[in-house]
Every structure is written in C-alpha cells, then in structure tokens.
Write a structure and sequence with these properties.
Elements: H1 7-35, H2 42-59, H3 66-103, E1 107-113, E2 119-123, E3 130-134, E4 140-145, E5 152-157, E6 164-165, E7 172-178, E8 184-190, E9 196-202, E10 209-213, E11 218-223, E12 229-234, E13 242-247, E14 253-255, E15 268-274, E16 277-282, E17 285-289, E18 296-297, E19 306-311, E20 314-319, E21 321-322, E22 327-328, E23 334-338, E24 346-350, E25 358-360, E26 366-372
Antiparallel strand pairs: 1-2, 1-26, 3-4, 4-5, 5-6, 7-8, 8-9, 9-10, 11-12, 12-13, 13-14, 15-16, 16-17, 17-18, 19-20, 20-23, 21-22, 23-24, 25-26
Helix pairs in contact: 1-2, 1-3, 2-3
C-alpha cells in the first residue's frame, strides 16, 4: 500500500529539482546571449557563462546539464569567430566606400613646384579634371574632364586660361599621353558598349583613329622616345596581364617576353617610355623593362609605386610611403621624387585623395595633378 510523501520529502524533492535547474538555466542563458550576434562580446559572454555552469556541475555532480554546456561552448565559439569575421568585413567595406567617396570628390587641375611643393590652380571646370599630360615644349597640359557631359580630352595653357576641347567621341577618353613631336595625343577609350580601345588624335583636335578596339583591361599607353611606337599595358580580368609594343607605321605588335615567372599574374599599369627603358607599375611596384630584350630590373622591390614618370634625370611617382616618417600609410597619397634607382626619396606633397594619375614637366621643375578643389600652398 502506497503512502503519500511527507511534506519534508516533497520539499527535499523540489529543492533538488531547483538545484538541477540552476546549471541548465545558466546554459540556456548562455545560448540566448550567444545568439545576440549584434552585441559586442556576446560570444565571449556565452563562453563565460558556460564555464560557470561547468564549475557548478563539478561541485554538484548529481546535477545535469552537460549537453546544454557543450551547446553553449560551441555557440560561443561560433559567435566569437563570427564577430571577428564581421569586424574584418566591416573594416574592408568601410575602406572601400571611403575610397569611393574620395574618388568622387571635386578635383581641379593644379601645377605643383617640385622644390617647394607650392600648388597653383591651372583649371577648374567640372570638378573632375584628371590625368594630365604636358606637351613636349611644356606650354600646354592635356587632361581628361567630363565638363561637356562625357569624359573628353581637353588642353589648357600651362599658365591657365580657357580650355580647348580635343575629342568629341561618344564614349570616354582618359589617360592621355602626348607624342614627342607634340602633334598627337594617344589615349585610352571606353565606348558606349563598355569596350576598351587605344586611340590617337591630333593635339589641335580632329578625327581620332583607333589602333586597338574591343580589348579588355587596358590600363595605360605611352609613346616611344622617337614617336614611332606605343607601349600599351593591360590587366584583363581573369586573364594574363601583358605589356606590348605597337608600331604606329606598320601596325605590327610585339608582346614583351618578360623574364619573370609571375609577370603575367601581376597587374600592369601606367607605362612611361623614357630613353632606353620602359617603366611600369607591376603588382604596385616599379619594374624597368628593356624594350628590345624584355629584361627587367626592380630598383625598389617592395615599395608601392604608381604612375612612374621620368624627367630631367629624376624619377617621380605616387606612393603610400612617406619618407619623412618612414612609414607606409593607406593609399598612394604621397608624391615622391628621387634618383632613377629610387634613392634619396623626398616627399613633394601629400593630399587627401589617391594620386593615381600625374605628369611631370619636361624640365622636371613642376608636375601636374588632379587635386582636391580649393587646395593651395605646400
């Protein structure tokens, strides 16, 4: 015959059940906290609560809750790793959108004195004057601007004044380079169908002729010192990068056989053909190429170099390296000058936006660049 449990037995049973609920309650709380991914440190808090629950079980082995604790530990670890990953994604996208914002900032055409860094406004039209190129006599500057509605090429006296339109094509023209005789301008072209090409147009304006059409990933062009050939760089998406030489008279082309194992994997941009060397930014570093043999030389391995230009026996380029502090900082916002071997680097100026497209006057005393509108002084 069964008898009802005494009041003391019922109280003891309820107390035991209450004790069994404590660690499970802690583990459940840990799981709930672990789900709060938006709360900083939620994963670490879940691990802490799981640890406290585990210590409780060690003191009271008659209690249960190991499964909940294991779940809390797993969820805590996943939450912590997820928040670390989220932080890196946030940091990357923040820098990306910051770069986009900088790229859309109003930019005017300035000339900068190499020795003092003093800036002088040359032209401010649509707030997007970029990619300057001096004429060989140093009297005019060709640049790209959307002031007429699309990106066209314009020329302006070096001292400033009214700009004259060079191209009137339906697409976009940019990265101009002037021939050694000052009569022709080579440029990159992107048509309405988004296909790229290389065009040449008279400096005074007129009909453009295209040497290349529908070529993906074109990144730069320059004339040979005698004006008979062009060097063209390209980094097609998903395909091998290349540097080629085109003969303006015969239309023939020759791909430079670069003697480097990883050459085709490196993005190649901003060619400059001076005297007996072609200089390009390959993999964001400076590479000198012999145009006849394809032999290469890296005068500054590991140093970030964009838009290398040579004038008056000196090397000019933009970089993220600041010689005054000895540190590399963000994007290529510092404009530097040094020897052709990259020694004795000196900072000419620093600015708030990446200096991705510059040119140097033939005498090497001044340079032209698109800088934020309103900037003045060193």
């Amino acid at each position: 015959m069964s008898s009802k449990p005494s009041r003391r037995d019922r109280l003891g049973s309820n107390a035991a059940e209450g004790r069994r609920a404590r660690p499970s309650g802690l583990a459940i709380a840990a799981v709930v906290v672990g789900l709060l991914l938006c709360v900083p440190g939620a994963g670490l808090l879940a691990l802490l609560l799981a640890y406290l629950a585990h210590r409780t079980l060690l003191r009271h082995p008659e209690l249960s809750g190991e499964g909940w604790i294991a779940a809390a530990v797993a969820l805590g670890l996943l939450t912590t790793l997820g928040q670390i990953l989220a932080f890196f994604v946030w940091a990357t996208t923040t820098e990306f959108f910051s770069t986009l914002a900088e790229a859309t900032e109003d930019v005017a055409l300035y000339e900068v004195a190499v020795d003092s860094g003093r800036r002088r406004l040359v032209f401010d039209g649509a707030g997007e004057e970029r990619c300057p190129a001096y004429t060989p006599d140093g009297r005019q500057i060709v640049f790209a601007s959307p002031q007429a509605g699309t990106w066209d090429l314009w020329r302006v006296p070096r001292e400033g004044g009214a700009a004259q339109r060079i191209t009137t094509l339906p697409g976009q023209e940019h990265r101009p380079r002037v021939s050694p005789d000052g009569r022709q301008v080579a440029f990159l072209y992107q048509g309405p169908d988004l296909a790229y090409g290389i065009g040449v147009v008279p400096l005074e304006g007129g009909e453009a002729r295209f040497l290349l059409q529908k070529v993906e990933g074109l990144t730069g062009v320059d004339f040979s010192p005698d004006g008979t050939r062009l060097v063209v760089t390209a980094s097609p998406p998903g395909r091998d990068a290349w540097t080629r030489i085109y003969d303006l008279e015969t239309g023939g082309r020759r791909t430079l056989k670069i003697q480097e194992d990883d050459w085709e994997d490196l993005p190649q941009t901003d060619p400059d053909w001076s005297e007996d060397r072609i200089r390009v930014s390959a993999g964001h570093t400076l590479v000198e190429i012999d145009p006849e043999t394809g032999a290469t030389h890296r005068p500054m391995p590991g140093r970030v170099v964009h838009t290398p230009r040579v004038a008056a026996g000196r090397l000019f380029f933009s970089s993220n390296f600041d010689p005054e502090t000895g540190r590399e900082e963000g994007t290529w916002r510092h404009l530097l000058v040094g020897t052709l071997e990259g020694r004795g680097l000196r900072r000419i100026l620093s600015t708030e936006i990446p200096l991705s497209c510059i040119d140097v006057a033939p005498d090497g005393t001044h340079l032209a660049a698109g800088l934020p509108s309103g900037e003045a002084g060193p």
